[in-house]
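dumping these here so i dont lose them again. two proteins, back to back, each one seq then structure tokens. dont judge the mess
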Amino acid sequence: MKICAEDKLLNGLLRLVPVTQNQPLGPGDDCAAIKGGKPGTLILLKTDCIAEDVHFLRSHDPAKVGWKALCRPLSDIAAMGGTPTEALITFFSPPDLDSAYWKKFYRGLGRAARRFGVTIAGGEMSRQKSGIAVSVMLTGQINSKHLLTRAGGNPGDILFVTGQLGGSIAGHHLKFIPRLEEGRWLAKNIHPSAMMDISDGLGADLPRLARASGCGFKVDYAKIPSRKGFDIRAALSDGEDYELLLAVPPAQAVLLRKKWPTAFPKTRLTEIGSLTPPRPAPTDWPSGWDHFEIK
């Protein structure tokens, strides 16, 4: 199964530094998980960044950009089944940007923080020659028995996705709601064998989940829930969906199909395929978004 350039770079960089060996979960998943606090509780660690002309434009409403900056790592906490706690915010500001921009940005960030129970513990700010960039470090917590990762899937597990995919550039990427409530419910009531958030498109993220689980996958293209006005290729490749991708053992899938409509009547859940024994991705499978692919 093809490994994207971003993952190849990460794997190469991690060989150069000491990484977590005696903790529950180190680099390579949606979040790291370390021991700490109350017995049986894990601390989740996540960093995320957004950059001008990559994740947003200068013309976008700064409040919506602030919302997005915090909600992106919140989506990763959701993928682990966790609850967010504290954030550190670091931004880099070009000299042609005044303080009014950052006040609007922080209003949007504050709305997200209050809605999802996050407090801002600190951060940093710096000038740079050009372009806006923001980095968010976020902590969370989860009961160790509820922790979800990408690596637990098995052949025969049923694949589901929440919501709709594709066409995020039309506005969804600035106003999405991270699936925190859904993630916690899944962790406690269904405990998927593997789960992650879809940020680089299903085309990139499903192979990641399958590879981490030592599996292949098969998908019914006709079942992939594409956003209105966008085709299946957009649903696979556009990225910035911030939905959940989960693998569920068949017996648990029966329970999930029964309970989901009552638990989340407004959130779509779609069965799209299954995990298989290891095998190459379909020949027509697109790559999804890759930050480091040379075009």
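---- next one ----
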Amino acid sequence: MGFFNLGKKDRYGNQARIEHRGKHLRVSRTGGVSLRAQAKAAGMNVTANSKHGLRVSGRVVKGTQMAMQNGRFVLRGRYGSGPTKLNMSKSGFTVSSRNELGTFNWIKPNRSSAKVFGVQMRGRKAANAQMAFMFLSLVAVAASEAFRLMVFLLVWAWRLLVMGWQLLMLIPYGWEQLKRNITSWRIQRMRNQLPGDLLDTLGSWDATRLVAALALAAHGWGRGQLLSRARDELEAQLSIQGDSLVQAASDQLVQVEKALDSGNACVDGKKQPSAQLAIVAELGKLLRRSYHQNPTAELLLQLDELLVRLGPKTRFQEQMLAVLGDAFDLRLVESEVASLANP
């Protein structure tokens, strides 16, 4: 079976052309049976074929061949290194492309060739087979590219969806951050309207008085109570509470109460909540500069625990703790607060 190339594959992995091509014998479906002999003489190739007669050929330049066959002049050339080549003959130039099926001539399709299951075809049948093959190849390539484009779009759609979801999850944080920034701006603006003697008084206090003032302001102003009543409740609570930074400052509550009351009385009633937040922020900044070892995080958590022990926290107290955390450059984490409030 190997005599006719059956089972032999070409460079594309397809069945090679079914024929026998020996040294002197050639047998094929289209060419029939012919005997041939070849020799070289004076740099020329001389070929004698029982079917096509005598041919004398030689190469002029690379890719170009001239020949005389049975008295007929033959000129042909093939140029190019890729699958598409420029062909030359006596009738002119054509362009052809090589593919898995054979060769398709773009200028003169009837000069195309095609090989189907090892059977060689030429002429119109080959041209039709080539056009059908190229159309199917184009459809396959288009389908493949469409699938790749769809996968690409789906991947990017998923990425955009994930990015959108992440941005959506950041909206609450961004909103809270915006509100904190607006509050900080209002507090700074209100701080500039506070009496100068009050700011001087606060600036002269040591860390102990600053802690006492924060505890009294957070409990009294945060619940809307008189500072005298808030001081009594604080003293009662601190007398039974364990050691803490606030308890160490409990003997300063009376002294800071008067200064806080006088400062609050100097502000118009509608502006008192903003003024109270501004005073808390000022106390926090002064305290942050007063501490050498920076126990501000511990103090913030102890104040939060103290307010919980004195009763449910109000929204204004939560706002005060947030303002104090900003002054301390800290953030109060709810999980830590819950663990301290419920030991």
